[in-house]
Structure formats: C-alpha cells, structure tokens
C-alpha cells in the first residue's frame, strides 16, 4: 500500500501538480481535476506513510497548488468560469467539502508526525525543542485539531461512512493520540497527557462501535491499526497512572477491553491479524486488571509510574540488542532492581519479542 500510494504521489509530483504554475492556461475543469488528483495522492500517501511509520513523500513547503474548489461534479462540468466562492457555501453530500476537510487534517497529521515521531527529534538532536516550547507547540496543534472537529461539515442525509459524524470523531481522536502518546520528542507523558490519551482512546472506540453496530465499518489496514494503537495507548496510560486507574474503576476498564476485542474480531472477520491483535490486547488487559487489586497509593506524587515509563521508553526508543539490556544494571538504567513487575509487565516485554514493536513509528 505504501509503495503504491507513494508511486501515485511521485507521478503527480513528476507532472508538477504540486505547483500552482501547472494550472496556468487551463480551463476550470482541467485545473480542478489537476488539483483533485494531486491532493488525493497526497492524502493517501500521508495516511499510509504515518500508519506504517514510513517517511512522508513531500513536505508542506514544497506545495503551492491550492485546494480544490467546493464544487460537485455537476457544478464543475456545467461551469465555464470560476464561480463566486466568497459567500457562505452549504456543504453538500456530492461536493468536495469532506475532501477539503480531510486534506486539512492530513496537513496537521503530517506536521505532528514530523515533529514528535521523527527519529531526529529526540534529545540527541541538536535542533530539538526545549520542553516548554514543545508543550506550547503541542497545545497549538491540539487547538487546531479541536477547531478542525468543530468546523467539520455536517450533512443532513449521507450514505458515506466518511461523511458521518462518527468518522470525523475517529479521525480527531486518532490525531490526538498521535499528539499525546509516547513519542521520541516526549517519551514520558505527564499525568495530564495520559488522561488525554485515555479519553481519546475511549472516544475512538466508542465511535467505531457506533459505526460497527450499523454495519458501516469494513476491514481496512487503517481501521485495524487505529483500533490497535488506541487499545495499547489506553492500557499503557492505565498501567502508568495509578490515579487514572482509580478514576475509571475495574469494571469500566473490563468493558472497554471487551469492546476492543469485539471490534478486532468483528471487523477482521476471521483474518489472522485480527486474532493476533486480540490476543495481545487480551493479555495486556488481563495483566493490567491485576493492578486493581492493589491498595491505592496515598503518595500525591505517584500520579505517574515513572519507573514503568522509563523502562518502556528504553525498550521503545533505543535500538540496543536484548544482550545489551542484560549487560546494563538497574542502576545504570535508572530503574530499581525489582523492576519490571513480573505480575503485570511481562506481556509488555513480550509485546516487543512477539514482533509488534511500538518503535515502528520511526521516520
């Protein structure tokens, strides 16, 4: 998929469709189709590259071609001149309003991906932001995502899943997870960050459940990937935050885990990938539930289990071999000698050994 979508975008770039100069001298139909072809290739490449942890094929500053006009195919073929688009335009099911809104989201996705998940954005990068500037930038992206969701087009009657309110919610929550989950730029999320991750993971799964209940969601790589990332992120946040576990309670977490498993097995429709993801989440979930039997930690400073975060971060954000980890003592890694907790953390260890490495988000 990444190869095919990348090849399509490279062909569009080879035709200079990413530059506004290519529109010179074209009539309305040809100009609009050129813009649609380029931005369609851009959206597909961006989505697949981010979900597969591959480099983006084009940078934002290399693009000068404008967005397509908000026109339906009928309006486009019947118009000989550029219509007046200055007034308020009501979104129609048949026009490009959804497409334009998805382009705007992919631009935010790409910016977050490059800033937070690039292999060069860690502490060893001389151009890396300081923590305060990084947090301000992240807050700015979060505001942009909320604005994107608020301004999403609404349709009175549509049969398309991609024009449903639930789909816009899914896209929003998936973007928020990319912004706040552990990354190279911010490998140890704060308690507030973990709470945002948990809320977005639950929001994403709720929207997927609504679509699935109406038989409006089908198997795709992106759907399975989104659900899996949401499930792992929620379980990670609950493992790392004792206060978050107290807020949700064990029955609520059990229900959320069962919802994830139902969706995996339902959407995958017998495919091996669905069963593999289900087994991973089920094992991680069962190990997490044992923590609810522990007595609450009275220490106010224990909102986040930094030992777990540091251990998990070392496994995620470095490329040392297992033998190298054996050579490192607990003191050298900044982790106590009795960590990880064998009751609950072996499934997290096996998450890497089993071949699904959270480090796949590297650029």
From TrEMBL:
GO terms for cellular component: nucleus. GO terms for molecular function: DNA-binding transcription factor activity, RNA polymerase II-specific; sequence-specific DNA binding; zinc ion binding. Keywords: DNA-binding, Membrane, Metal-binding, Nucleus, Transcription, Transcription regulation, Transmembrane, Transmembrane helix, Zinc. Residues 1-74 form the Xylanolytic transcriptional activator regulatory domain. The keyword Metal-binding applies. The chain crosses the membrane at residues 219-238. Its main location: nucleus. One of its GO terms (biological process) is DNA-templated transcription. It is found in: Nucleus. Signal peptide: none annotated. CDD domains: fungal_TF_MHR. The keyword DNA-binding applies. PANTHER family: ZN(II)2CYS6 TRANSCRIPTION FACTOR (EUROFUNG), ZN(II)2CYS6 TRANSCRIPTION FACTOR (EUROFUNG)-RELATED. This is Xylanolytic transcriptional activator regulatory domain-containing protein. The lineage of its organism: Eukaryota, Fungi, Dikarya, Ascomycota, Pezizomycotina.
């Amino acid at each position: 998929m990444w190869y095919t979508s990348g090849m399509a975008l490279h062909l569009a770039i080879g035709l200079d469709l990413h530059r506004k100069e290519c529109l010179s001298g074209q009539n309305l139909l040809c100009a609009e189709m050129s813009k649609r072809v380029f931005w369609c290739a851009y959206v597909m490449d961006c989505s697949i590259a981010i979900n597969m942890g591959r480099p983006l094929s084009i940078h934002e500053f290399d693009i000068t071609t404008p967005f397509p006009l908000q026109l339906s195919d009928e309006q486009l073929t019947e118009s000989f001149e550029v219509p007046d688009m200055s007034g308020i335009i009501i979104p129609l099911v048949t026009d490009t309003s959804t497409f334009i809104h998805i382009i705007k989201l992919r631009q935010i996705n790409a910016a977050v991906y490059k800033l937070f998940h690039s292999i060069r954005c860690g502490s060893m990068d001389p151009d890396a932001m300081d923590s305060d500037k990084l947090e301000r930038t992240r807050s700015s992206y979060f505001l942009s995502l909320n604005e994107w969701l608020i301004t999403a087009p609404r349709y009175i009657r549509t049969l398309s899943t991609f024009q449903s309110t639930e789909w816009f919610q899914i896209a929003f929550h998936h973007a928020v997870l990319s912004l706040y989950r552990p990354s190279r730029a911010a490998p140890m999320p704060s308690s507030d960050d973990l709470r945002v991750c948990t809320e977005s993971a639950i929001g994403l799964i709720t929207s997927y459940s609504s679509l699935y209940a109406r038989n409006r969601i089908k198997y795709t790589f992106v759907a399975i990937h989104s659900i899996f990332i949401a499930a792992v992120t929620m379980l990670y946040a609950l493992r790392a935050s004792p206060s978050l576990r107290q807020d949700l309670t064990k029955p609520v977490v059990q229900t959320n885990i069962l919802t994830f498993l139902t969706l995996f097995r339902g959407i995958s429709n017998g495919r091996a990938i669905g069963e593999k993801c289900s087994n991973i989440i089920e094992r991680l979930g069962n190990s997490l539930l044992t923590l609810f039997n522990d007595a609450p930690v009275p220490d106010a400073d224990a909102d986040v289990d930094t030992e777990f975060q540091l251990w998990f971060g070392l496994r995620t954000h470095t490329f040392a071999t297992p033998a190298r980890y054996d050579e490192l003592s607990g003191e050298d890694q900044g982790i106590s000698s009795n960590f990880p907790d064998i009751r609950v953390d072996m499934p997290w260890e096996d998450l890497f050994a089993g071949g699904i490495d959270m480090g796949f988000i590297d650029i």
